[in-house]
Amino acid sequence: MKFSSAKQTSSYQGYSLLATVILFFSAILLLTGFALRTHTLTRKQCYTELSVSTKEAMQDLETHFRSDRVSLRMLASMLSQEESLSSINVSSYLDIYDVNSLISNIGILTPENTCIQLRGKEIDASGVMDYQKEVLLGEHISNLQPSLTTGDSMVVRSFMPIRRSGKTIGLLYAEMTPSNIARAWSPSIYNGSCTFCIISRETGELIVNNWNKNIHYISDLDSESLQNSILEGKSAFREMQTEQGDVFLSYMPMELENWEIMVSVRKEEVFSSADEIEASMKWFLAGIMALLSLYLAWMLRINHYSVLHAKKQANIDILTGLQNRNCYENYCEKIKSAERLACIYIDANGLHELNNTKGHLAGDQMLRFIADTLKIYFGEDTVYRIGGDEFIVFDKNQSDSKIQEILEQVKTEIERNQYHISAGYCLGTKKIQLKELIKTAEIRMYEEKKKYYEKIGRPVRNHIKEGENIL
User: Which of 256, 167, 139, 164 shows the shortest CA–CA distance to 207?
Assistant: First the structure.
């Protein structure tokens, strides 16, 4: 009996040892497979992050350019009312213009190819700018041009026609140095190690370049397929070998001008996290649980920020950059009282006709311009795009007269660009519910829209449906 018992004990210990070894090596295989799988997912995540970062860089830069263009458009409108572009008032307007972090200088190019700069200084622009050539392009942003004031340096100029009685009498322009444009975007991934450049698809010139100072034209790159892809305005992601090492490039066409933006990051930066995981696997026998816990915590952190980013994107209208209907509905759910709350309901006039006659790109341009104007006058935190051509503004503590004043300014600015809107508003009181506040503003907007279409001799499309719930 003792022999049998000992034999059973020995067999049990053997089986336990065998089970332990099997479990140990199973754990090694599972963890190795998990690490390899995680490495693959990390690579894909890196590709996604770089592509998203490229789009964010493009949006940030285009927002800067659009904001500056709106300011230039307003200034050009004021200058058009002056009798002479050489007057003291014109000089005063230029002197008080807000030169922001992107714009370094401002001036006026006259038909005589003379530049009127700050404090009324006049400089001959021959050989630098050609008025006849620039005026044919209308509102536009140039490629690199020589500076008139700082020697051999190059600048990018944003031109805005100054029109009087339907004729262009001069070109207002704002100068931006490539270094200032480069500072307009700060990358949030890979410890800010991303670099970018802006490439003209017409000439292949690198207009802005904080990526590789040895490259001035896309043709300098030893990759014909990359050159063709960029010059054709494609969006892509690829790996490339350079003198500084392997890099990953993500590029896509910009909506402003005929430009392509390209974001670059070194390969070791992209895969630094994955390399750390592989190195840590060599020491997992000494601290397998600790490493696994750290890794899971890291993955949870990435997932957390991905969810936050997805929630943020879900509340932004891609076309205009305004808060979208999801954000609007969430805001309405949080409002407990409409007292002292003003609701302004805005609708773009003629969007359907514009889409039918000039195409949807023209319609999109109209909506972006209206959205940018609303941001300037009301603030982007109060404006929502709730439909194709419908916008709502919620503003607190504004008087009836103040709202009318702002709306008149908005309409004037929009009409300067040959667009039109209809707007209705309602001021909240203790007795009015939020739904009634919004509905009243909407009805007043359609009353104004009806008057607009009657004025131009066209029937108004009926958008109000019986019992329609706008919340």
Answer: 256
